[in-house]
Every structure is written in C-alpha cells, then in structure tokens.
Amino acid sequence: MTAQTLYDKLWHSHVVHEEADGTVLLYIDRHLVHEVTSPQAFEGLKLAGRPLWRVDSVVSTADHNTPTNDWDKGIQDPISRQQVETLDANIKAFGALAYFPFKDKGQGIVHVMGPEQGATLPGMTVVCGDSHTSTHGAFGALAHGIGTSEVEHVMATQTLVAKKSKNMLVRVDGKLPAGITGKDVALAIIGKIGTAGGTGYAIEFGGEAIRALSMEGRMSLCNMAIEGGARSGLVAVDQKTIDYVKGRPFAPKGEQWDAAVAYWNTLHSDEGAHFDQVVVLDAADIQPQVTWGTSPEMVTDINGRVPDPAQETDPVKKGSIERALAYMGLQAGTPMSEIPVDIVFIGSCTNSRIEDLRDAAAVARGRQKAANVKQVLVVPGSGLVKAQAEQEGLDKVFIEAGFEWREPGCSMCLAMNADRLQPGERCASTSNRNFEGRQGQGGRTHLVSPAMAAAAAVAGHFVDIRSL
Amino acid sequence: MKAFTTLNGLVCPLDRANVDTDAIIPKQFLKSIKRSGFGPNLFDEWRYLDHGEPGMDNSQRPLNPDFVLNFPRYAGAQVLLARENFGCGSSREHAPWALEDQGFRVVIAPSFADIFFNNCYKNGLLPIVQPAEVVDQLFRECEAAEGYALNVDLPSQTITTPSGQSFAFDITEHRKHCLLGGLDEIGLTLQHAEKIKAYEAQRRAAQPWLFA
Fold it and tell me: Which of A70, A119, A160, A209 suits a disulfide with A59, CB 3.0-4.6 Å?
C-alpha cells in the first residue's frame, strides 16, 4: 500500500460515498455547536421537520456573546441574550451529548472546551461553525470550520459534501530559542507563506520544534492554520497527545482506551508520503513575533521595524501596506519596540489555556501595569481553566499587577460582547486576527504571544521578553 | 436556494486584496438569529461614516462617498470584482448572506478563501476564479466604462465582456448541478441515507469509543 499522509488517512477513513467528480460525503464524528452560527441551522431543521441525525455527536457551549464580568447581572445586551437563549432552547429541543450553557463551570470557548472535555479525540472528524475549528487538528483529528448551511447539513445527515484538499507539510527543524511559543511559530509561518499560502491545502506541522511543543502550543499553532489560508492544521499523534487525552470526561476508558490508543498510534504520516508542498523553517531563526498591519501576514519580530511601502514593487501589496499603516496610525521605519500600547488582551481560542496564563503570569509576577496602559484584560478560555489558574494563584498575580481577571469567553478577540476597543486604541492581543475593526471599530490590533502581551502591559510598549 | 443559470450584471470593482469576512459583515450583526436582512450592513464600516449597530435605520445613516459601493454608477450591481484571497478569516455565512441580500449573484477574484468560497455555493452566489491578469483587465475596463456589465453563463461556464471577449471558468459538476437546479443539498444527501447508516454501523463496531 502506498505511503499516506496523516491527512490522507483521516480523509479516507471517513469517506461514505464518492461521486465521479471526486466530491465525497465525509462522515463527521464530532459537531461542536455555539450560539452565533447555529440558530439559522436549527431553524432550517425545524422548517423541514428533520431531527439531528446523531444527537451524541453534538457538544455545545455559549461563548461568543457571553459577558466576562458581572455574571450575576446576566447578559445585558438584549440581542446577545436572545441568541444565547435561542441556543438553550434549541439544545433542549434537539438534544446533545453535552451542553455547557452560560455560567456553567464547564462553559468556555468552544475550542478550549472540546479538548479539555475529551470531546475532541485523535482520528475524529471535528467540525464547528467557526473557522478556528482547525485548533482540534493538534490532536491528529481532521478539523475545520464550516458555514451555517453546512452546520445544518451535518445536523441532518452526519456528513459534509466535501472535496479533498492538497497536502502541505510545514516542518520546523531544530530547537526553538527560550521563550518562543507556538504562537510565535504560527505567526512566523504565516509571515513566510502569507494568509493565502495554505488555501486549498491541509497543513501538517512537523519537525523537531513541533514535536517539542506542548499540546497547548500545538493548539495555538493549529488554531492559526486558517490565518495561513488552510482550513485544517494537523499535528501527528504522539505520547503527549495521548497523555493529554487520558482521563478526560469523554475520553474512552478501560479496554476501549487500549484499543483507541493502538489506533491513535497509527495517526502520523507514513515514511515517504507525498506532500504537494513542503515549507521548511529553522526554529533557531524564530524571534518573538509582533504584527504591524491589518492582516496576520503583516508581521515582523520584536527587533524589526514597521515596513516602508515605498520598498514594495507590487502595486496591490503596496496599496495594502499604505492602507494598513494609515489604519494602524504607524510611520514606516518605526522600531516595533517603540510602539506604545493602550490596551492588552490576554485570551481567545488561540491563547487562553492554562499554559498561556502561566506564561503571562510569569512575566506579570512582581511587576506593575505601565501607567500609559489603560486596561489589561485576562480572560481564561473556560470555567475549568479559570478554576485551575485560581488554584495556582495566577489570578492574584494578575490582580496584583493591575490586570483584570475576568470570566471565560471569546471576549475582545472579536468584540461581540461589551469587551471592545474604542476608535484609535492600540492593543497588544493574544488573539488571532488583526483585521480592521475586529476588536472594535477603529481599534488597532497587534498580535503577540501571552508572554509578549504581558510584557507590553508592564513596559507600556512592545518589548523583547528576553530582555526583561 | 435560488437557482443560477445566466446573468447579465452590472459590475462593481472593489480594489482591495485580502478582504476578510469581518469587513464584509461586522460582528455586531452576527447576533441576528435570522438568515436575511444583512444587505444594508454589507461592508458596514467602509460604507457608512458612523458606527453601525443592529436595529438602526440604515437609510438615515451618513454614507461614505469614497466607498465604491456608494458610487451612483454602481447602484444595482450584481457582479462584485475583487482581488486575491477574497473572503478570508471567519467562517460566518453571514458574509455571503449579506452579499446576496445586497443583490450580488457573482464574485470574481483571482483567489478566494476556502470556507467563504464553499459557503457561496450554498446560497446561490457564484464565486468565479480568474487569473490575476484577467482580473486586472476587468478592473481596467470596468473603471473606464460606466454601465460596464458582464454576461455570466453557468451552463457554458463562461463570462463575456461587453466587447464579446469570453473567459472560461471552472466549477465542480456537483456544485454546478446544485446551482443550476437551486437544489436542497440536504435532500440530495439523504438519498444516500442507507449508505451513511451502513458506514456508521461499521464505524460503531470498529471504534466504539466514538459512540459513547
């Protein structure tokens, strides 16, 4: 049998039916559902009188709209509240394997909740009406975001109509320098391949530096595969994957555990498997990353400078740089380390897990928020992450440094709740998108790792964490 | 879903690369639990001079006169011309819903983000990939001639300019079939229900932990 990539294996093991043109029905094992992209899908099922094909494939939580403070007051925004209550009602009517509603201790960002519950397992196909579903590929699962029509299609048929992507290997060789995280690796890769570099591909991340990343680091990396254009990111299963999954609420137990592990250990690309494209980075070259523009590919390292559009020869790219600098209020040639910040956001499905909070707390410990920084929000990814952080005393470290310790949710990553930037405010953010208006109309986002965000909070500007 | 066969549509040129779905429809409008009514908030932050929120009377809001969608010559456009990586970012299907609600039926660009591209087909919106030099030519012609319209023919998979120049485009047979017929994809898939059940039974036996 020919050598297969991990993506090939996951794909072929889920094909239910194939048309002559290569369009397949792909079986879906896990469907994660949240409040924003599901109401129209449930409505479609109701109108057609269709039930869920498989109730026990659905795991759900409310995250995008939920507030991160004053939980005793409920959801103040009536439209947000209606959307969350609509999810409550739909889950009650249609059923689910598990539901973590607003204020439940298991509630959290859907891409934090899935893995921590063991609802994401190696070898699964995982979908969700959210582009950052690529996160779950860190477990050797085939995971990607879908639109609401597809949410309804999966609910009604347990399948997706799909075409196979091409295979890309992004290999990061060697050892990462101290202090360099999965987030920096993700941004460095996007800086190299561009935001459309992975379009049409499933990206497998491999190499020594990826093997050395924790599961949290791999999740941050796969999370941002979509920012490189790839719907799916993947990391092969190894002992770290298996250790992370073991003992979680929805992980297999007993004999089934042993059978599952035997299967999961096959979930890697075979020796000699064909990749349509291979991109190689040297880990030693990766420095702490900071974005300067309005697309994640507009990135440099902390020792870099804001680029000069006059140096760009491609007219479309030149126009993009000029527009980005105008929006961001930046001058060409400014050293990144001289850019002051107004707001710091530590959270999101990219960077709100316990290891991220530990990284940020290690920087904040014994230091104080800089006087020019108006607000530092620390938003844990789930109720369970919050409890763990409090058990470790991280909440106190943040509060003593002048940071705000909030309730879990998507928060200022996309600013659907009350947490948002005001026009012109500049934010060091651990989230995934620096698009115009993403964190609030007129807001200016710089993407960084949790340690770099905490460092910007205490220094008042971007700073190399290794110089602290 | 609305069927798509042929269209002779006015073209609106949006000369930006990497237009993301946050720009196409900002997050505050995603709080709706409906599928329609997003058109007036298409490109909200570029289109209006004030900050938009759900429930506002959009007809009373100040328009940005510099944004191409507001130019009188492009009123009623059905074809959006764009640059590479159109529709990147969030998977929100509200983006094609907003384009369709505004009256667009076709988007032409050198490349599209995968999720957006796929979402278009579910909503009777036809995304067409053309080489960068063809897109460049269409931008030039469209900006030079008021009333510039393209003829889009799905059965023959061609777009034709007013001067009669034709360009072919690709589409999978499955997507073409669904668009031409305006078909309910779920209904089509459920014709394979027995196959899905058989696959599921075999999977349940081989990997029972997936069915806890």
Answer: A119
Q: Is the pLDDT of residue A1 over 70?
A: no
Question: In the prediction, which pLDDT does B212 show?
Answer: 75
Under 8 Å CB-to-CB from A306, ≥6 apart: which residues? A292, A300, A325, A330, A331, A332, A333, A334, A336, A339
Assess whether pLDDT exceeds 80 at residue A231. Answer: yes
ipTM attached to this prediction? 0.96
Structural Rg of chain A based on CA atoms: 21
Q: Cα(A167)–Cα(A202) distance, rounded to whole angstroms?
A: 5
Write out the two tokens for B195: 């196959």
- Using CA atoms, how far residue A317 sits from A125, A321, A332, in Å, is 36, 6, 15
A195 and B186: CB-CB below 8 Å?
Answer: no
| Contacts with B, A 24-83, CB within 8 Å | 25, 27, 29, 36-37, 39-40, 43, 48, 50, 53-54, 56, 64-65, 77, 79-80, 82-83
Residue A18, both tokens: 């194939």
Q: What is the DSSP string of A59-120?
A: EEE--SS--SS-GGG---SHHHHHHHHHHHHHHHHH--SEEE-TT-TT-B-HHHHHHHTT-S
- Tokens matching residue A219: 């999740």
How many residues does this entry show for chain B? Answer: 212
- The per-residue pLDDT of chain A, averaged, comes to 97
Q: Compute the distance between CA of residue B103 and CA of residue A186 in angstroms, rounded to an integer.
A: 38
Q: For residue A16, what are the CA distances in angstroms to A151, A153, A232, A407, B194?
A: 18, 15, 20, 41, 10
Please compute the mean of the pLDDT values over residues A99-125 and round it to a whole number: 98
Smallest Cα distance from A126 to chain B, Å:
12
Residue of B nearest to A321 (CA): B17
pLDDT in tens, A116-144: 999 999 999 999 999 999 999 999 999 99
